[in-house]
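Our consortium's second objective concerns turning raw sequence data into structural hypotheses that experimental partners can test. To show how far this objective has progressed, the report includes one record in full. It was chosen at random from the queue rather than selected for favorable results. The single chain below, 164 residues long, was entered without modification.
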Amino acid sequence: MNYSIVPFRPKTNPGDHWAIPYVTGKKYYVRWEYGLDFEKMRFEIIPWLWDNTDGDIEFVMPHYDVREAVYVDDNLGNRIENQTIALNAATGNKFGDNLILNETDTRMIHMIINGDDDDINRMTLTGVRCISNCKLDVPEDLPLEDRIRYWSVLDDWDGRTELP
């Protein structure tokens, strides 16, 4: 398996972003070094560089932060429903077809990118933490600890032997 590391660029200027080239017809497993904790993520193609014979690009991305919903919207304002990868597989997937697994033990996003529709060249994933009844139930009598626990130090977490 080959891999590459793309350094994180802070959000001080979202317009100053990374552009990363990918080979069409391939599937990419994309994992962020510290997990994926996203509010919005955008995928965009340059339509005039996409040839009609180019294959789909499929991204598979784990995410670790709880999301009540993940929305996929195209640049025309259409919301793409979940599980469209399987629905459209026989006839050919479209830009934005996806499969979003949001259960605790299988949080994974599958996304198709292609240039099959000249009018659609951008998808935005929006991770929504809470839609309704967003009040946090926090016990009032939480005991204070006399130390700071770091998520990356296994000894700080009772019984952990490996990072997730």
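The partners drew two points from this record. The chain has one domain: 27-156. The longest strand covers residues 122-128. Both points have been shared with the crystallography group to help prioritize constructs.
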